[in-house]
Design goal:
By secondary structure, the chain is mostly helical. The protein has helices at residues 6-21, 41-57, 66-101, 114-118, 120-129, 140-159, 161-178, 195-208, 214-221, 223-243, 268-281, 284-289, 293-304, 306-327, 331-370. The protein has one domain (6-247, 256-366). The longest helix has 40 residues, at 331-370. Residues 374-400 have low confidence and may be disordered.
Length: 400
């Protein structure tokens, strides 16, 4: 397993933050940084996904071929698609079962689930096509689209690295100005996250992950200067978010083409906010990990197993909403929900790693039985000896 590192650490933090934020009104929600900034954990999570994508396909010692890049990224897209389909069906089951057990038929209309029961044929077609999404279960479809498009980003970067960011910014601007989004069906509306807009923060994560070239290298060389711009942005975000005062958009010129405080299209204020947070907080991992190694290990474990933990956290947050409906939103209820929810997420992450360690141990044992230690030959099937197993590049990757 990878050692604790900044990417996994912050991804683990984002997972807990998303779990808490998906139980509206709970006590711990007030301590999330979205109450102090103009962005939230969704932007951070997508940014880190782009960063991790760069690390997963770039290996200076053994670079992936174009076909290898497509295979790896589209394989990941399929895995995420399966996860989305599974947790959506689990969420439908939970809402249906709760409506029966609690004699609360209105639960069948929670979170946009009503079409499943009123238009089952069309709704299930939409679920498979991802055009129909439940509330709070709508971020993984964004990831599916981003991962499908990721090979184009990676391949374009190899041939024309300077073109990636301008094209990404142009697509984001056009999506925001023209309202480009994927329509929902069979219910009316559009996706909660516009992939054409949100690809920008994903691409920025991909570019900033570069350690010695392009945008990442520039950002590291000029980090002190960038922080002078970041602090005022954070100050404005703190003033707006903490007081809940946001300028009236109808007083702005060309209101129809200006998007502010808009999550669907990743408005400029949210984009600048997350970049400012990354710029200022990029080096915090080192200061946290030294005095609090247990926290570093814990959050990194969650982050290393992000998809499993996210899926479990999404289902648990829905259960938490129902529990708060039944028992009320007292501090003790919220405390139990938080402790139990985070505990189960940690258990799932530990079980995934335990299974992986068992598989690696089995592979090592098989290799040692097949190849005599003194032969000097390489183990079969491309298996490395224990001392030769490479550590992924993400172990030392900074956040910004």
């Amino acid at each position: 397993m990878r050692q604790p590192n900044a990417i996994d650490f912050w991804r683990g933090y984002a997972l807990i933050s998303i779990f808490v934020n998906h139980i509206p009104g709970n006590f711990f929600e007030r301590f999330q940084y979205r109450n102090l900034t103009l962005s939230d954990s969704a932007e951070l999570f997508v940014f880190l996904a782009g960063w991790a994508m760069r690390l997963s396909i770039e290996n200076p010692k053994k670079p992936l071929s174009t076909g290898g890049v497509v295979y790896r990224l589209w394989g990941r897209a399929f895995t995420i698609y399966v996860a989305q389909t599974f947790i959506t069906e689990v969420a439908i089951f939970i809402l249906a079962a709760a409506s029966v057990w609690l004699d609360a038929p209105f639960l069948l209309d929670w979170h946009n689930v009503g079409a499943v029961f009123h238009q089952p044929v069309e709704a299930h077609i939409g679920l498979v096509l991802l055009t129909y999404q439940l509330g709070y279960f709508n971020i993984l479809p964004l990831y599916v689209v981003l991962m499908i498009a990721a090979p184009a980003v990676a391949i374009l970067y190899r041939s024309a690295p300077l073109a990636v960011l301008p094209l990404s910014v142009l697509l984001w601007a056009l999506a925001s100005l023209n309202g480009w989004n994927i329509p929902s069906w069979p219910v009316e509306g559009t996706w909660f996250f516009s992939p054409a807009a949100w690809q920008l923060v994903y691409v920025l994560g991909f570019l900033l992950a570069g350690a010695s070239t392009d945008l990442g290298a520039y950002a590291r060389r000029h980090l002190a200067m960038l922080r002078w711009f970041a602090w005022p942005i954070l100050g404005i975000g703190l003033a707006c978010a903490s007081t809940r005062y946001f300028p009236d958009l109808f007083t702005l010129p060309a209101t129809s083409s200006v998007r502010l405080f808009d999550k669907t299209f990743l408005s400029i204020d949210r984009l600048l906010s997350v970049l400012a947070i990354i710029t200022v907080g990029g080096g915090l991992f080192t200061f946290i990990a030294r005095p609090l190694p247990w926290l570093s290990r814990f959050l990194s474990m969650l982050g290393r197993n992000g998809l499993h933990v996210f899926c479990v956290g999404s289902v648990l947050s829905l259960c938490g909403q129902i529990v708060r409906f039944v028992y009320g939103g007292s501090l003790w209820t919220d405390l139990v929900l938080f402790v139990v929810g985070v505990g189960i997420m940690a258990l799932i992450a530990w079980l995934v790693e335990w299974r992986t360690r068992a598989q690696v141990g089995s592979s090592r044992a098989e290799a040692s039985r097949t190849v005599p230690p003194s032969s000097g030959a390489s183990p079969p099937n491309g298996l490395a000896r224990p001392a030769e197993i490479p550590i992924p590049a993400a172990t030392s990757a900074p956040v910004a």
